[in-house]
Amino acid sequence: MTYNHRLIIKTISAILLFEGIAMLIPLGFACYLGETSSATAFFCTSIIGIAFGWTMTRFIPKTKKVVKTREGYFIVIVSWLFVVFIGAMPYLLADQGYSFISCWFESMAGWTTTGASTLDLTTMPKSLLLWKTVTSWLGGMGIIVLTISIFPRLGIGGQKMAAAEVPGPELEKFTARFGDTAKISYRIYLVLTVLEFLMLIPTKMGPYYALLNTLSSISTAGIVDLSGTQAGFVITPYIKGVLAFFSLAGSISFIVYFMLYIKKWKAAFTNYEVRVYLCIIGVAALIVSISLYRSGMYSTYLDSLGNGLVQVISFASTSGFIIADLSKWPTLCKVALLIVVIIGGCGFSTSGSLKVIRVIVFFKLIMRGIYKRIHPQAVKPIMVQGKPISATNASSITVFILLYFAIFIFSCLMMSLENFDMETTLSAVVAAFTNNGTCFGKMTTSDFGQFSAFGQFYSSILMLAGRLEMYAVIVLFSRSFWNSDRARS
Amino acid sequence: MTVNVKNVVRMMGILLFVIGICIIPSLIVAIIYQEKISIISFAVTMVICLSLGFVIMYLFPPSLMKIKARDGFLIVSLCWIVASLISAVPLWTSNAIPSYIDAFFEMCSGYSTTGSTCLKDVEILPKSMLFWRSFTHWLGGMGIIVFAMAILPSIGVEGMMIASAETPGPTLDKLTPKFSDTAKNLYLLYMLFTAVETLLLVMGGMSLYDALLHTFGTVGTGGFSDYNTSVGHFSSPYLQWVIIVFMTMCGTNFNLYFILFKRGPKAFFSDPELRLYLAIMGTCSVLITIDLLAMGVYKEAGQSLTAATFQVSSLMTTTGYATANYDLWPTFAKMLLLLVMLTGACSSSTGGGPKIIRILISLKLIRRGVALKIHPNRVLTVNLNGKEIPQEVASNIANFMFFYIFTVFAGGLIISANGFDLMTTFSAVITCLGNVGPGFNLVGPVMNFSIFSPFSKLVLSFLMIAGRLELFTFFMLFSPHYWNPDKA
User: Fold this and answer.
1) What is the CA radius of gyration of chain A?
2) DSSP line for B7-22
3) Range 52-111 of A in CB contact (< 8 A) with B
4) Would you call A406 and B420 a contact, using CB atoms and an 8 Å cutoff?
5) Strand ranges (DSSP E) for A195-247?
6) What is the pLDDT of residues B294-312, one digit of tens each?
7) A355-394 residues touching B, CB cutoff 8 A
């Protein structure tokens, strides 16, 4: 097996360099708050990351070899594992008595924008909590995308690496070079973040919580518990609205922003995927709010509609913040929320799960199946926005959906070894695999701490598989991945 | 719209006639046990069915117009609904089930071989009514229309077209040139199984009546019993193992038995679907046995093995008998049971669910997809038993799986309006769509479906029929393309 070792090491060291730099933010904050143990932890990890990353990027010569698809997967998975591992170090070194597996889980939940936790977030040092949201902000857009946006000349194979990391099927490119795409995407992401932060500043939550909420909602991580018990401030409808709006913004295809950026207004507003996504949210919010109103959870219809809408957006964008005790909500709401979380956000966004575009193709394939049974000889392509989807793309989406449900069922089996009730078991899998972090049963609090070390480890891998759209993790279990130079039948 | 109305009406007439004939055994049972109300309601229904059927067949002679594949879908769906509607009449008029919707649910459950019941106490029903209930399993197992073909070979319609809409599984092997011959062969085999199992059960100490009822439930992979505790009423391991063996046999592709007769056991066991079917069943049984022992549900290994195997084969073949309240088992065991409910039995068997062959091909598609991700330019085919599967078939199968997933979620959304917990909601939908019978929590093996609202019962009834007819046959009728097919 031959790999482009230089490129792999170079990419990883560049990413470690960024991670080290990113740690300076919570480090500064820890110093400011006087949290000495976490400050030391951040300092040590950061120094190692920066020193290692800097030397390696300096001294490893450039390579001009083309990256193969297989190497793309390998680079992505290795980078993510490294990043998560290093990201777990501050939790471990902060001397809070956390076990290694909890730290690993915490870091994974941060990077994959899941937002679940095994630890008690209320007692966690504030700088560590900030680190968690910073990791989810970086993980939201993707660390490889970040690397490419800063080092466009890292390799020729940026596209191939990013394909393994960017969510959603790749149906169109918006710039000729992937480096440009990455740069523009990050710029848009940054603008949205700043905008949200500025909108949250006037509220009573203070800059620290404003920053936490901004970083975790735009990246659709949803770490902060919106029931407001931990933060010590009142959650006003304004805050709910802002967070929901920016979660929605983060889960909309970035292609739309790009279209706005280059002033193609019409293309931006007629984007089929985004329209369908908004329709799904609208219908689901209607169902949830009517059901809530009828059950008498909220006294006025407006209240039910508002809370229903926020909760639906939180699930559809796979942020997974909670505004009320979901376990008391009617089953109809739960099923509606379950459906939207499995559908997920748009492709090329920060959200997780199946992605709307795939669900559109899923429906069109069913419709086509009916049509083909009525007219067995008909030739009917799948059309999305007036353009036919190639057979290769359609079959790749088919496989994706089949694989998704296959992993889903297999994971339910693995998690059932924990011997929790069925609803909790299924919920844990949904919460981890869709990167939502929250679901029903005993998972309404996003607390994975109730599982054993095995359950925590398995769900952390599941989160990674969900974030990287399965293939990057699944190919590791394929024989032809390890044995690919030899032709095999 | 050019649906062949005459042919459709004629088929309904034939169906009525056939149902009229099928009532006779239940009538005899009613006479033997001297249940007066049942005798009257059976006799009246029978006379009406026979006369109406006869008149329709007389008025609509066999037409020379060919039946198109499209007409076949309408005929089959209508047949199943009409059959359930009419068969519910004796149950309702005799006041055995006071509500007509409940009776309809019961009959849909019977014909589709689901075995879910909305009766709180089945033991208080008249014996002839219980017999009728189980007899519909026997009829529905192999298919009502196949049955009609087998006894009336010259009904004047092209059997193959219609039967392909009714037979479970993606492809229909042509075993004989004329489909009515195939139908006859299938039914002969089916009757052989029925006779042998009844004999074995009677030898094990069941009364003839109980033996017949449980045989109908087993060979049709239905699951109605005349006891509230289902097969758990009989503690004899012998009886349980007889039922296990026959459930497994009837969950196997019936065409394979002809291969067994013609080409021997080697060809029989080389069938990839059968191998996967037995492998899943074996693995799950062993895993559950170990789990039950480890968690201390059973003390003895033998007991645990019997219980686990019974439950796995019962749910996998979508029969739905229970010997234990598996809802109290550990979660791992329950999850495995849910898994086998979602795989179902083999194609062309009497079982339901998505069918093993589709699961097998889906897995192969996934493997191919992953390999293509690693080497995008490779040319890979999906092979089954050494033969390449055409693109068309593979895409049909993927479509079916999608439709199945979609129906589970859509059904779950409708049923959730009842406000029961998530597991109850989804397992009710999965169990009805897969024609299994029991689910989990409130629809668990010792519970029943009486808790649902009439509307939900109706939805579940249609899900059962849709599941039995493999979704497309039924749901196609709701597509505008179906009613507007001549326009491009």
Assistant:
1) 22
2) HHHHHHHHHHHHHHHH
3) 69-70, 73
4) no
5) none
6) 999 999 999 999 999 999 9
7) 362-363, 365-376
pLDDT category, B401, cuts 50, 70, 90? very high
Please list the alpha-helical segments (H only) found in B295-385: 301-316, 331-343, 356-374
How many angstroms away from the CA of B44 is the closest CA of chain A? 40
Task: Mention every residue, 6+ apart, whose C-beta is less than 8 A from residue A185.
Answer: A141, A145, A149, A254, A258
Q: Which two tokens stand for residue B154?
A: 């010259």
Residue B270, Cα to own-chain centre: how many angstroms? 25
3-state helix, strand, coil in chain B (%, to 5): 70, 0, 30
d(CA A208, CA A29) in angstroms, rounded, equals 10
Q: Distance of CA B259 to CAs B265, B278, B359, Å?
A: 8, 18, 23
Among B369, B395, B476, select the one facing A396 at the smallest CB separation: B369
Give residues with Cβ within 8 angstroms of B306, minimum separation 6.
B237, B240, B241, B323
Chain A partners within 8 Å of B373 (Cβ): 69, 73, 396, 471, 475
Calculate mean pLDDT across residues B1-26.
84
**In this predicted complex, what is the ipTM?**
0.92
Rounded to an integer, what distance in angstroms lies between the CA atom of residue B403 and that of residue B293? 38
Q: pLDDT tens for residues A416-470?
A: 999 899 999 999 999 999 998 888 888 887 788 889 999 999 999 999 999 888 8
Q: Comparing C-alpha atoms, which of B336, B338, B403, B395 is closest to residue B361?
A: B395
Residue that the structure tokens 């889980």 belong to: A105
Q: Is the pLDDT of residue B254 over 60?
A: yes
Tokens representing A2 are 């031959």
Q: Is B279 on the interface with A (CB under 8 A)?
A: no
Distances (CA, A) of B461 to B465, B471, B484: 7, 13, 27
Buried b (16+ CB within 10 A) or exposed e, A435-451: bbbbbbbbbbbbbbeeb
Q: CA A152 to CA A345: how far, in whole Å?
A: 28
> Are A401 and B402 within 8 A, CB to CB?
yes
Q: Are A365 and B399 in contact (CB < 8 Å)?
A: yes
Quick count: other Cβ atoms within 10 Å of Cβ A229?
A: 9
Neighbour tally for A480: CB within 10 Å: 17
Q: Answer yes or no: is pLDDT of A104 > 90.
A: yes
User: CB of A406 within 8 Å of any CB in chain B?
Assistant: yes
DSSP state of B150: H
CB B33 within 8 A of CB B128: yes
Find the closest chain A residue to B380 by CA distance: A489
Quick: pLDDT tens for B426-480: 999 999 999 998 999 899 888 889 999 999 999 999 999 999 888 888 888 888 8
Do B313 and B240 contact (CB within 8 A), yes or no? no
Place of tokens 């980078």: A79
DSSP-assigned letter for residue B230: G
* Chains A & B: contacts with CB separation below 8 Å: 162
Residue carrying the six token digits 């700088």: A127
With beta carbons under 8 A apart, name residues in chain B contacting A374: 70, 476, 479, 481-482, 485
Measured CA to CA, the distance from residue B63 to residue B42 in angstroms comes to 32
User: Taking 70 as the threshold, does the pLDDT of residue A180 lie above it?
Assistant: yes
Helix, coil or strand: residue A189: helix
Q: What is chain B's mean pLDDT, rounded? A: 87
Reported residue count of chain B is 488
Interval B18-59: pLDDT, tens: 899 999 999 999 999 998 999 999 999 999 999 999 999 888
Residue A202: other Cβ atoms inside 10 A: 9
In angstroms, rounded to a whole number, what is the distance separating the alpha carbons of residues A345 and A319? 10
| pLDDT in the model for residue B57 | 85
How does pLDDT run across A366-400, given as a tens digit for each residue? Answer: 999 888 888 878 888 888 888 888 888 888 889 99
